Automatic annotation (TrEMBL):
<protein>
    <submittedName>
        <fullName>GNAT family N-acetyltransferase</fullName>
    </submittedName>
</protein>
<dbReference type="Pfam" id="PF00583">
    <property type="entry name" value="Acetyltransf_1"/>
</dbReference>
<feature type="domain" description="N-acetyltransferase">
    <location>
        <begin position="4"/>
        <end position="174"/>
    </location>
</feature>
<dbReference type="InterPro" id="IPR016181">
    <property type="entry name" value="Acyl_CoA_acyltransferase"/>
</dbReference>
<dbReference type="InterPro" id="IPR050832">
    <property type="entry name" value="Bact_Acetyltransf"/>
</dbReference>
<keyword id="KW-0808">Transferase</keyword>
<keyword id="KW-0012">Acyltransferase</keyword>
<dbReference type="InterPro" id="IPR000182">
    <property type="entry name" value="GNAT_dom"/>
</dbReference>
């Protein structure tokens, strides 16, 4: 059995987080994001943003986790207070949002996504969170199936993101952490 784990990210992880994000988006999002958007992505810019997020998170309730297989960083997740609460949402203090959960495609189907999600749930509960939400591209069937297989459901909300070269439709999924 492979040596697998999930741990909190450190500043030295930022370049690998950026690489994983870039590789995953360029592979898995070819039919979701416009080609010019994918071509314009810059790993150094991503790395600088992730370094800032890991080094100085906006609050103690913001977390970035790394999935490991042996010595390889294979995926990551970021979550924290929901910055996009809707009028019909329950108490903002008990709702958190997963802003990204990615496993590099070549490391897929090995349980890394499930381990990341379980770690998110554990940390969120420790922070007093009773509800998690995630916006997922409507065309990202793999991610939608992943969340749904873990018991997440659509709450009926949909939004359109302007990429500068078109729009991407996203659906909001949610899960209760109560009990």
């Amino acid at each position: 059995m492979a040596d697998v784990s999930v741990r909190p990210a450190s500043p030295t992880d930022a370049p690998e987080i950026a690489r994983i994000q870039l590789e995953t988006w360029r592979t898995a999002y070819q039919t979701i994001l416009p080609a010019q958007v994918l071509a314009s992505l810059d790993q150094d810019t991503f790395a600088a943003q992730w370094l800032a997020s890991v080094s100085e998170p906006p609050s103690m309730r913001h977390h970035i986790l790394i999935a490991m297989e042996g010595e390889s960083r294979v995926g990551f997740a970021a979550f924290g207070p929901d910055a996009d609460l809707q009028p019909e949402d329950p108490d903002p203090e008990t709702t958190a949002a997963i802003t990204v959960l990615l496993v590099e495609p070549r490391w897929g189907r090995r349980g890394h996504g499930s381990r990341l999600l379980a770690a998110v749930v554990d940390l969120a509960r420790a922070d007093g969170v009773t509800r998690l939400v995630a916006w997922v591209a409507a065309g990202d069937t793999a991610s939608l199936e992943f969340y749904r297989s873990a018991g997440w459901e659509s709450d009926g909300l949909r939004r359109e993101l302007d990429t500068g070269a078109g729009t991407v439709a996203e659906l909001r999924l949610h899960a209760s952490l109560a009990d």
